[in-house]
Design brief:
alpha/beta, nine-stranded mixed β-sheet, four-stranded antiparallel β-sheet, elongated, binds zinc ion
């Protein structure tokens, strides 16, 4: 198998892509733009060398199919689109590793593998232009909110449906892409980590347990404005004091939760002047956890703490939900296979959750058994031109991901 796989070719192709679609500020493959169309042409030229059937679905996702003995499919996915001034690996590493794996499978099985293998390049994973990520995969999974998406507008005032029309996609029909998931029995996605966990552990690869659930709320404390000179400390109704106590409390809540994270990302005060006690203080809280009940507990603890601090400071508190998404745990069997592939490749593996969402979360949501593999990110940074991974780690991830693909083909065959 190893003689047929050429991970160095994947690295060379990624460099070729960077030269073709990036500039001194980074990758410029924003979805539905001329550069993205050019990227797709380049990808199709790579796929043309193989006996695969390639088409674009109703949502603009590109599918390339190598037909096997069984109609049941192993899916491998990624996204060629990037944010403006993006990194050279985010999304396209997954797709290009998939291209190399298709070559290996095609060569090993003389064009007829035991199960059907399909590579998908999801359209607009990043949501960089219209502010809504996972467009193509959420259309395919059936979860795209059509009313919300219909009204999305970019900075130039162009509506999403019009931008789609320009690249030959009929917005009203995007959910027809759901039929592509027929016969899908497993979904695999490789990705650069976008965080520092593997870097800090000094490990090249990790198996992803799922994507975090998110609770995002605005918390407003209501006190009373009063003169900063004439109001004794013990008579104040200081909304900021209560909000400030939340700051250290969320660290305790996150620590008690095990793997959860909590962030207060913004704080605004009214009247917001130097000579007044704060009348109203609004903070935002973002809480994430892979386990649903643990996430619910973190939220409940934050609510209880806010009420306690409000009571202590003689102020009132109100909560408003901004956004919420459930955790998407990946498939246990596939996680075990991913772990095994990593250990066979580089000795040691690590299991970790994903903080960011990925297309894999939408595929898992559609009920397809799913797993992701992460490769170490050198600076722990993505969505930036400095995003990077050591070349030896890139080659290792293609090798390990290929082993996972082979194991997943057996997983699919057993389910036929
Ligand atoms: Zn990505």
């Amino acid at each position: 198998m190893s003689a047929l796989l050429n991970p160095a070719r994947t690295v060379a192709e990624l460099k070729e892509l960077r030269a073709l679609t990036g500039d001194e500020n980074g990758a410029q493959r924003v979805a539905f733009t001329p550069m993205w169309v050019k990227t797709r042409h380049w990808l199709k030229s790579k796929l043309k060398e193989q006996p695969v059937e390639t088409h674009v679905d109703a949502a603009g996702n590109l599918w390339s199919t190598l037909r096997g003995e069984s109609e049941n499919c192993l899916l491998i996915g990624g996204h060629m689109d990037s944010v403006p001034n993006g990194g050279w690996l985010d999304g396209c590493l997954n797709v290009m590793a998939g291209v190399e794996i298709l070559r290996r499978i095609n060569a090993q099985y003389n064009g007829k593998p035991p199960v059907t293998v399909r590579l998908v390049d999801w359209a607009d994973e990043e949501g960089a232009r219209f502010g809504k990520s996972l467009f193509g995969s959420s259309a395919c999974s059936g979860n795209l909110d059509m009313n919300e998406a219909r009204g999305l507008v970019d900075k130039q005032g162009i509506k999403l449906p019009d931008a789609l029309k320009n690249v030959g996609i009929d917005f009203e029909r995007v959910k027809d892409s759901g039929k592509e998931l027929k016969n899908a029995a497993a979904y695999l996605e490789l990705h650069i980590e976008q965080g520092p966990v593997l870097l800090d552990l000094d490990l090249p690869l990790g198996a992803v347990l799922g994507t975090f659930g998110v609770e995002r709320h605005a918390i407003t404390f209501h006190g009373q404005a009063a003169h900063s000179g004439s109001t004794p400390m013990k008579r104040r109704k200081d909304a900021f004091l209560a909000a400030a106590k939340m700051s250290s409390e969320i660290y305790k809540i996150a620590e008690r939760s095990g793997n959860g994270v909590c962030t207060i990302g913004s704080c605004t005060t009214k009247p917001g002047i130097v000579t007044s006690v704060v009348e109203e203080c609004r903070i935002t809280l973002d809480q994430r956890h892979l386990d649903g009940p643990a996430l619910a507990k973190m939220l409940q603890e934050a609510k209880a703490a806010s009420e306690q601090f409000a009571k202590e400071g003689n102020v009132k508190v109100s909560w408003e939900r901004i956004w919420q998404i459930d955790p998407r745990p990946f498939n246990d069997e596939l996680i075990a296979l991913c772990d095994e592939s990593i250990r066979e490749t580089c000795g040691q593996s690590h299991r970790l959750p994903s903080g960011p969402l990925h297309d894999a979360a939408e595929v898992a949501r559609a009920g397809v058994p799913t797993v992701m593999m992460f490769v170490q990110s050198l600076h722990g940074i993505s969505h930036n031109k400095i995003e990077d991974t050591k070349e030896e780690h890139l080659e290792l991830c293609v090798t390990a991901f290929d082993k996972l693909a082979e194991k997943a083909m057996k997983f699919v065959a057993e389910r036929s």
